[in-house]
Specification:
By secondary structure, the protein is an all-alpha fold. The protein has helices at 2-31, 47-58, 64-78, 85-109, 117-136, 142-168, 172-205, 210-216, 224-241, 252-268, 277-302. Helix 4 packs parallel to helix 6.
């Protein structure tokens, strides 16, 4: 046993020395290991790179609201009063309130014999349509809707005064004729409203090219966006046909309001959704005709 230990002693003394000589070689070999390449020849990424990619994937992405806010920021900065539908809509509504105020003033001051039943009926239809239009258009214009609701009430009162005056003066036959025509118009309008959606669906489904495209338009003939400005054409047409109206029958307040309304709505119609070119055109016409009469009135009375 003792002899065996003596025989192994030199080998045990040499083992640490051999390990010391081999460890540096192993370290050098570890330092000079060439990274393995993938199929494309590019070195494989280290674990740290993979961990960084995983962290990038797990990073929170911008929400839809954040993206929308970022997109709206430049738009909000560049928006001016010229491009503000709210600004032009408020101005148009204030001008409309001037027209309603003129109607209320006439109801308190003027004689019922001067009331035109035909024009009063047109104004009732006109304001009813525009009250609805102001409620559904984008952006919604409640100030304008309230103005037209008020005007409907004022014109209905004018209609009542005119009918009572005619009955008191023995014109019952004329009153009955007017009421019969008004009832027929109301019935026809109600029928169109009820049948409109079915007719629109049939025309659009028939694929008639431009006809179907017009029927399906957001501001097409089956929507209030079309009929509200068309009712305004009736008022503008009256001004055109009375281009030589005597200046003593021109109301300064009324035609000032009409001129302002035409000016404001010409721009407002191009800023709302859907864009309304019919409304724009009728207000350009209204501005021109009303400004003509207003200029004649100012020239006759003040110049």
């Amino acid at each position: 046993m003792f002899a065996a230990r003596l025989a192994l002693a030199p080998a045990m003394r040499l083992a640490p020395s051999a390990l010391r000589h081999r460890l540096p070689q192993a370290s050098a070999t570890a330092r000079t290991v060439v990274p393995k390449s993938g199929a494309s020849g590019a070195p494989t990424r280290r674990f740290a790179d993979k961990a960084g990619d995983a962290a990038a994937k797990e990073a929170p992405k911008p929400t839809a609201a954040a993206k929308e806010a970022a997109a709206e920021a430049p738009k909000a900065e560049s928006e001016s009063l010229w491009n503000s539908a709210e600004f032009w809509g408020r101005c148009g509504a204030l001008a409309g309130w001037g027209m309603s105020g003129a109607a209320i003033y006439d109801a308190m001051q003027s004689s019922p014999e001067l009331i035109s039943l035909n024009m009063t009926g047109v104004l009732i239809v006109y304001s009813s349509l525009f009250a609805r239009w102001a409620f559904v258009v984008k952006p919604q214009n409640l100030l304008l809707a309230g103005c037209h609701v008020t005007n409907v009430g004022a014109q209905l009162n004018q209609l009542r005064r005119a009918i009572e005056y005619k009955k008191e003066n023995g014109k019952d036959e004329e009153v009955n004729d007017i009421l019969t025509k008004a009832g027929a118009v109301a019935a026809g309008g109600l029928a169109c409203v009820m049948a409109g959606p079915m007719a629109q669906s049939a025309i659009v489904g028939a694929n008639l090219g431009p006809v179907s495209a017009v029927a399906a338009a957001d501001a097409g003939p089956f929507t209030v966006h079309f009929w509200a400005p068309m009712s305004k054409w009736m008022i503008s047409g009256a001004s055109f046909f009375e281009y030589d109206r005597p200046t003593d029958k021109i109301s300064l307040a009324q035609y000032s309001a009409l001129t302002a309304t035409g000016f404001f709505f010409s721009r407002y119609a191009l800023l709302v959704t859907p864009i309304n070119y019919v409304l724009c055109s009728v207000n350009i016409a209204l501005f021109g005709s009303s400004a003509w009469h207003l200029g004649r009135k100012i020239k006759a009375d003040y110049l």
